[in-house]
Amino acid sequence: MCHWLMKSEPSEFSIDDLKRAPDGTAPWDGVRNYQARNHMREMKAGDRVLFYHSSTDPLAVVGTARVVREGYPDESAWNPKSPYYDKRSTLENPVWLRVDVRFEARFPVPVTLADLRTVPALKHMLLLRKGMRLSVQPVTPEEFEAVLARAAELAKGRHA
DNA sequence: GCCAACGTTGGC
DNA sequence: GCCAACGTTGGC
């Protein structure tokens, strides 16, 4: 099983939007970066996902999700009215793909970017690297667990 | 709103 | 195939 981090601007699609979606499941589409797409190609059903809110305040990992459907054509690329339209994508050669993800948990206290930077186990996390703006990133199992542990710690602290 | 970092495009 | 110009991302 692999672990991933996926970024979304909450004004576009937040973890609450995912939670509210039918069956807590929604397609993750609109990815128009080849490196991010290649990561999505490798996703398997059951893979775990850290849900990250970008371009907002606070910047934070806000919860977790699971991949429930592996890569299939991103139809938004075929829709001329979609902001994600790309004429290079055809039925024969879809170019872009999406996966379906299912809501798993929302952290009681989000783990902010600033907080992640203070966790020694996350020293080498891709997300924290300068200039890193990839919207779909691999995460090591250790890093994934460290984020969950930090989220639990923060949740505990809140009620202390 | 700014701007650094990165990705893409297109002329040559 | 290089690289300058341009567009986008996303933290600050």
Explained architecture:
It is a single chain. With 160 residues, the chain is α+β, with helices and mostly antiparallel strands. The protein has a single domain (3-158), classed as Roll (ph1033 like fold), CATH 3.10.590. Helices cover 24% and strands 31% of the residues. It contains 4 helices and 6 strands. It has helices at residues 15-20, 34-42, 113-116, 141-159, and strands spanning 3-8, 25-28, 48-53, 60-73, 97-112, 136-139. It has a 6-stranded mixed sheet with strand order 2-5-4-3-1-6, sandwiched between helices. A hairpin with a 6-residue loop joins strand 3 and strand 4 (60-73). The chain is globular and about 50 Å long. The model has no long low-confidence stretch (mean pLDDT 93). It binds a DNA duplex (12 and 12 nucleotides) through residues 7, 9, 33-35, 54-55, 59, 113, 130-135.
What's the total count of β strands? 6
Number of domains: 1
- Our measurement of the CA-to-CA distance between the termini, rounded to an integer number of angstroms, reads 35 Å
Major beta-sheet overview: 6 strands, mixed
Number of contiguous helices = 4
Mean pLDDT over all positions? 93
Which second-level CATH architecture applies? Roll
Determine the fraction of residues in helical runs and give it as a percent range: 10-25%
Strand content bin: 25-35%
Radius of gyration: 16 Å
Uncertain runs are none
| Strand/helix succession | EHEHEEEHEH
Give the CATH H-level superfamily. ph1033 like domains
- Molecular shape: globular
